[in-house]
Request: fold
Amino acid sequence: MLYYIDMTMGYRIKVARDRLGLNQEEVGNAIGVSKQSVNQYETKGTSPEPHRIPALRQILRVTFAWLHAGEGPPPDKDSIEVRMDDLMVENYRNKKPARPGKPSKSA
Reply:
């Protein structure tokens, strides 16, 4: 597999998907889109909607940074960077919004 200096997000999606042996339908099901949408990400230059990026990053086992702007091969699927992104997403999903006028418990 060649890794270009100026890889598009679509090419990074394909590289990460191929590395894990996933097909476009599996990725689409995981992020709530059709396999045709995944194909368009990879070949037509369309981008996933922002709210789908966390699930896409998770199924592809890459970091947000690599998915958006990475160069070279994807990070190891079990790397500390990928696991840190997992924790960040989990913490964000579990955080309860503060009520107006009251500080959040994490503040």
